[in-house]
Every structure is written in structure tokens, then in C-alpha cells.
Amino acid sequence: MDIRRKHTGNPEYGKKENPDIQEAGNKARENADYASQKAQEVSGTAQQKAREVYHDVEDRGKNMVDEQKHSLAGEIGVWGSALHDTADKLRQRRDPMADIPDNAARFLDKASHYLDEKTPEDMLRDTNDYARHHPLMVVGGMFAAGLVLARVLKAVPAGHEKLERDSEPVSRDDPSVKKGESYGI
User: What is the dihedral of CA 118, 124, 126, 127, to 10 degrees?
Assistant: First the structure.
């Protein structure tokens, strides 16, 4: 049985809507459309702000990397200059070993110029290309770095998180230190 007929006994009941109900429904649809439009505007604004923040952080990060890269290039350049000076002094004494620091200085000069001229993306691409063309060299380098790191970690005494620089040095004449013990040096 039809619900309209059940309550009123008239099958035509409810077919003509009350104008107040119709107006309320229209208002509700308008309000829903308005709320949806405002939600989309807020969402679009939030997405735009998020993009701006992302690009700002990305730019700051790139600037920081560039500053550090140029600072490192400058330091390497200083080391290269010092090695060039050493090579010049050795040449003045006619020392046959003058080529060794000079070759190292040239290598450092190249590294300094490379860091200055290349972007981090270029360096990553070059590293990937090198690893692709010379995989054994990369694996060997990683193995050597692992050995060095293991030696460094093994050399640090267990339980010592930092060296105490302010501790007083122990004298060799200190009677509290038995023969064969470490002097803390």
C-alpha cells in the first residue's frame, strides 16, 4: 500500500508540494551549492599555499646546498694553493719530489672548479653515470670506506661518547697510575 494513501486515504496527497516546503528545499540546495563552492575555494587556496610553501622550502634548500658547495669548493681551492706553494718551494730546492704536491694541487683545483660549476643535479647524474660505467670501482670504494669506518669505530672506546678536553692530564710521576696503565693521553 502506498504511504500517501495509508496516512490520508488519498492517493493524490503530497503530489502538490507546499510552497513553503518547496522554498525551503530550494534554499537548502542553494546553501549546499554555496557551501560546496566555498569549500572548493578554500581547498584551492590551501593547495596554492601548500605549493608556495613547498617551493619556498625547495628554494631555501637549494640555496643552502649551493652555499655549502661553494664554501667547500673554496676550502679545496685553499688546500690546492697550499700544495702549489709547497711544490714551488720544492722546485726552488731542486727536489725531485716537487711533482707529487703539484699533481695533488691540480687534482684539487679540478675538484674545486667542478664543485663551483656543477649543480647538485649534475653531480648526481655524473655519479650515476660513473657507477653505471665502473661498478667494480664503486663497490671497491664502498668496501674500502666500510673498512675505514670499521677501524674508526673500533678505535673509539666503548662507552665514551665524547672526549673530555677539560680533564686534567695525568703526570707520569703520579703515584696513582700503575706501570703499564694508560695515562689518558
Answer: 130
Q: How many CA atoms lie within 13 A of 133 on its CB side?
A: 6
Signed CA dihedral, 119, 123, 128, 134: sign only: positive
- Asked whether the beta carbons of 96 and 117 are under 8 A apart, the reply is no
Sole residue written with cell 660549476: 117
Confidence (pLDDT) at 41: 85
The three-class DSSP label of residue 9 is: coil
CA 123 to chain centre: 15
Q: Report domain extents, the chain.
A: 3-117, 118-156
**Residues 142-171: tens digit of each pLDDT:** 999 999 999 999 888 766 555 554 455 555
Phi, psi values for residue 18, rounded to 5°: -65, 135
Give, for 127, the enclosing helix (H) or strand (E): helix 120-133
Q: Which parts of the chain register pLDDT below 70?
A: 1-17, 158-185
The pLDDT assigned to 157 comes to 75
- 3-class DSSP state of 13: coil
Q: Could you tell me if 81 and 108 are in contact, meaning their C-beta atoms sit under 8 angstroms apart?
A: no
The CA R_g of the chain, rounded to the nearest whole Å, is: 38
Question: Which residue is it, cell 542553494?
Answer: 30
**Contact present, 17 and 4 (Cβ < 8 Å):** no
